[in-house]
Hints:
With 145 residues, the chain is mostly helical. The protein has one domain. Helices cover 81% and strands 0% of the residues. It has helices at 2-35, 42-55, 57-81, 86-108, 121-142. The protein starts with a helix and ends with a helix.
Amino acid sequence: MGVIRIAAAWLAAVVFMALAGTAAQSGFVLAALADVGAPISGGDALGMIVADLGALAPLYGALIAIAFAVAFLAGGLVVRVSPLPRLLVYGAAGLIAMAVMLAAMEPVFFGVPPIAGARSLAGQAVQAGLGCLAGLVYAALAKRR
Length: 145
């Protein structure tokens, strides 16, 4: 049953990251709009977040799934051969996966980061930080009982 536990933990981390990352990127876009004087009501903000969750999260989640599969597999190898704590290894794996994925996406999209809320250093840091949290979710759920 270890494979099922690991797959479920990976899926939970992917879903967490897709939802949290999409909501965070929406927040960055809304903040940028407010900075240039766009009037944004609470209903407008909520509507945008919901629309992004429906439209962006599935595609973003698919890319996250690939990045986390590679990162958590590599993390598993590190955990086996090093004395580092599991939480540290998988947290770092999630953070690095998101940072690398965002950096790798930019050249593919003609130099424009496709995740609008990650076009600033702060936006990228938030996405990477959420990747770290997703790695912690994976580490907690994938641990042998």
